[in-house]
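Let's practice the habit of predicting before peeking. Look at the sequence and jot down your guess about where helices and strands might fall. Then scroll down.
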Amino acid sequence: MYILGIESSCDETAASVVQDGHVVLSNVISSQIKLHAAYGGVIPELAAREHLKNVYPVVEAALREAGKSVEELDGMAVTSHPGLIPALLVGNAYAKGLSAAAGLPIVGVNHFQGHLYAAFLEHPEALDAPENYPILGVVVSGGHTALVLLQEDGRAQIVGTTLDDAAGEALDKAAKILNLGYPGGPIIDRLAKLGDERKYDFPRGLVGAAGKPVPAEHKYDVSFSGVKTALLYQVRERTLSDSELNDIVASYQAAVMGVLVTKAIMAAHDCGAKLVCLCGGVACNSYLRAQMQAACERRGMKLLLTPPKYCTDNAAMIAGLGYHYHKFNFHSGVDMPVSARLPQDLGIFPLARKAKI
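Done guessing? Here is the structure:
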């Protein structure tokens, strides 16, 4: 089954053709990073205009790269939530129009679940192994930071989330404070390799490090407001040398990633997770990948790291997940709405071993 996926939830216009949920025949992405860099973040209306300009050539490029025509497709999948409404509307309008013109069934895909699916794109066998359940998904990106427990019957439950900024946002804001440019994640990852992470003791929220017990309801939650404020106070009215900057960046990164690893391992242990998967744009961070690997090895836990090419926003994860909905004949209509928010109830994750929609 050949599925065309379209992704336009933020600032990447992407299209992909995926066969049977895991054979990626094409994965085309048009990024708007340079366009939004001057503003230090994504401007929704500007992103929508770029999506409008790029969606047709990106889809055509994905079909050409896959060696498929629209007539050879079996269905379509498009990100319908969550995301920036103006951006989502462009991708959805194009997908619905193409679906109607070609007579193809269409399904709206949850972008957050798409990131979780991306970890299994190259390892579909991991979802068929009963010994892997429950699975703890660590979804860390510019828009989301959450711990998701996936059961064998498809039930997906968020057991921990951020109380303020997502991890990617915490990196972007740190880069803005330090005048490093946008997006902050890749720059911080690079500079941190040159610094000493033990030089500065940045706070780690909600881990009980300050002697204050963590409320039970926030046991697996994270917070990055404190570490951002500490960074601001550390550097204001200071002229930093290159070595000082590198040390600060390394220490800040260690604090942010340390909290993520601590919470993930704690949740995995308490929930009896047999497999941990790391996904989302921040999962590209080399320090986070290494620390999560080391922590899982110490605990005897299996870890699945999403390949970097599928960590950031892409349409392969949308098409791949969409395949499983089409397999169950679960389709959306042309009246399918878009939504900015992630629903509290993730419902059924159709990739789980015994899931039935």
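How did you do? Strands lie at 2-7, 12-19, 23-31, 75-81, 106-110, 135-140, 145-150, 156-161, 275-279, 302-305.
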